[in-house]
Amino acid sequence: MKKIISLGFTILLSLMLSLPSFSQQQTAKPATGAPAQTANASGPKIKWVDFEEAAALNAKKPKKIFLDMYTDWCGWCKKMDQSTFINPVIVNYMNQHFYAVKFNAERKDTVIYKGKDYVNPNPTGQRASHQLAQVVLNGRMSYPSFAFMDEQMNMITVVPGYRKAPEFEAILNFIGSDAYKTKKWEEFNTSFQRTAVE
């Protein structure tokens, strides 16, 4: 009986070690407050940072700031992580032109923005929004929503809802290239040449 159990254990262990999913799948370390994501071993990744780190980086080398306002329960947020946010065109443009922040709109800690403390007024409550999320989203608490800040950390705009890579590429370029300062979105969007594919 002991030989059968020992043989069964040996076979099970060797099967587990030989399966590619056990050896190749890795979990990327998320920024503070960001959800863990399965690493995309075949391509580049967005360099996510937390809000405080983005502010510190921006003080040294100014860049626009992109905020992915998400919640743990948001299915479309997860879909963005699994599709649009791993698209190489999106990843490369984001890393070049923005400090990318994953901001849990229901986070429990204090965040300092422009010298003011923002908190979650009901940190033990279910689906309680953080004050900074409320300010950034102007009280329109829908997820995912994407907020863009300029190099001085002033709000540019908020774009709500799930977006596929080609559409999101145009939005990133509209903000990242400063086209929003001189053109209307409709004019830019119709002439923009997309390179991202779904």
Structure description:
- This protein is 38% helix and 19% strand.
- The chain starts with a helix and ends in a 7-residue tail after the last helix.
- The chain has a single domain, classed as Glutaredoxin (3-Layer(aba) Sandwich).
- The strands form 3 sheets. It has a 5-stranded mixed sheet with strand order 3-5-4-8-9. A two-stranded antiparallel ribbon has the order 1-2.
- The chain has 198 residues and is of the alpha/beta class.
- The chain has 8 helices and 9 strands.
- Helix 5 runs parallel beside helix 7.
- Residues 1-39 have low confidence and may be disordered.
Give me the CATH superfamily: Glutaredoxin
Q: What is the CATH-assigned architecture?
A: 3-Layer(aba) Sandwich
**Mean pLDDT across all amino acids:** 84
Tally of helical runs? 8
Q: Spatial order of the strands in the main sheet?
A: 3-5-4-8-9
Radius of gyration over all CA atoms, rounded = 21 Å
Main pleated sheet: 5 strands, mixed
CATH first level: which class?
Answer: Alpha Beta
Brief synopsis:
The chain is α/β, with parallel strands linked by helices. The protein has helices at residues 2-18, 20-24, 51-60, 75-82, 88-97, 131-136, 165-176, 185-191, and strands at residues 27-28, 37-38, 48-49, 64-70, 98-104, 111-113, 116-118, 145-149, 155-160. Strand 8 and strand 9 form a beta hairpin.
